[in-house]
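User: I'll paste a sequence; please echo it back and then give the predicted structure.

Assistant: Echoing your sequence first, then the prediction.
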Amino acid sequence: MNHWKYFDITHKEHIICNPTSMAKFDQLLSLLRLNKGDKVLEIATGKGELMTQLIERYGVSGVAVDLSPDHSRDARARFAERVPDADLTFLEMDGADYQPDEPESFDLTACLGASWIYNGHQGTLQALKGWTKPNGYVVVGEPYWLQEPAQEYLEMANLKRDLFATHLENVLIGQEMGLVPIYSIVSNHDDWDVYEGLNWYAGENYILNNPDDPDLPELTKRLREQKMEYLQYGRSTLGWAIYVFRKTEMRND
């Protein structure tokens, strides 16, 4: 079954495709105090809600990048409906292949939940840092281990222990490359339950309403295995946070 198809089906009910509540998302946006005309880059924009709200609130210009054909469709529709006159470029491409015209050219760079594009959290921060202006924001969303993962969980979820770090380590990784951590939003069990529950809801509705889809056996198996994976292990083992760093201007005094 196509990876993008599965993700599209299970995320039909999501406004943002990560386990952050809308209240926390709104709080994050209120702290990203940008000016009209500031430039924003978002890698893996998903359905485009972050970029859309930054344009609506602050009048920024933007570059949004996403590889998924389904989310690209949704993002384009959202941009056309809510910010039709924005100075916005949408690129349907692999974020790993994106290169801006100039380094250090964005006031805010973001990548929420797609650090695999740059081989992990550190690589993502390094890439975004290079594209961010001095004193600009670097915003990343990244899982972290709440506790040492059981081997059974790693095998069930097809994960490796070193794929993620702890919450503290996620902060320190940025700090050690000269970024200043200025805020983080941490998801709790309720946030995760809503995120995972919407996956189940959308997936089970699709199964009910599309009995002739040839991918249904694989979809059903995968969805129901992931329910058990989350309930048995993931809920107590895997966390999620959005980290806000500032790229400080180097001083020579």
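The longest strand covers residues 132-145. Strands lie at 39-43, 61-66, 88-92, 106-112, 132-145, 179-186, 238-247.
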